[in-house]
Amino acid sequence: MTLWLISFGLISGITTWLFGFGGGFVTVPLLYTLILTLWGIDSLPAEHAMQIAVATSALIMLFSATVTTITHHKAKRLNWSIMSILFIGIAFGGIVGALLALTVEGTWIKWFFIGYLFVTILDCYFRPGFMAPTTHNAKKVTKAKESINGTVIGIIATFLGVGGSVMTVPLLRRRGTPMAQSAAMANALTLPLALTATCTYVALSFTSPLNSESGFIGYIWLKAALILICSTWVGLKISERFLSRIPDKWHARIYPLLLILVLIVMLF
Description:
Helix content: over 70%
Structural class: mainly alpha
Strand content: under 5%
Radius of gyration: 17 Å
Order of helices and strands: HHHHHHHHHEEHH
Family: Belongs to the 4-toluene sulfonate uptake permease (TSUP) (TC 2.A.102) family.
Protein name: Probable membrane transporter protein
Number of domains: 1
Low-confidence stretches: none
Keywords: Cell membrane, Membrane, Transmembrane, Transmembrane helix
InterPro entries: TM_pro_TauE-like, TSUP/Inactive_protease-like
Membrane topology: Multi-pass membrane protein
Shape: globular
């Protein structure tokens, strides 16, 4: 188990830095599979496997988003004027998404997760503006609309435990932002929802049926979270030097291919 967690933590760190996603899309399928394998499908943890995976993922994303945001800010890759309104909406959406995840059956979360992946992949390939953005989208976005965008992103991303990047990267991309900068800003925009979601899960830990199980704070699986956080940090450091070396065209092409890989894992 430990070797699997370390390996996937490294992958999570690399994809988080290079593509703006990785925390949720790598760790949620991994944790879901490990829980069913370790405890068995008829156990209490297996009954709440998706909630555990989503809550633990939020804590891991909180760490990785904090590290990447600090680094990208120092390197001046973040446009805070674009991100500020989204930031507030996403933070609020993070609370709502966490509350929803605790009230919905894990099987439903799993299929929502799969459906979300499928729609995102189709969107990347078939809706213009992602693979080869040409000019900056000059259409004015009001603060009210941006707030709503942020809230929706926060709710969906926290509910599924995936961070906001798979919504924010295409959004920023279609506004003419290069993939490298889109990934950097997506990491920063994951921070508010990871923070509010983690705080919500911890605050409501007393309601968790897993309190009788050792190694859990509410739905957060502590041992797995610690191992993944440490290995994710190593993955972030490994990939940091490669961010500016991937051509924008290939950066965009690899992005949906990784999503397809995650979709296959969740289906099979």
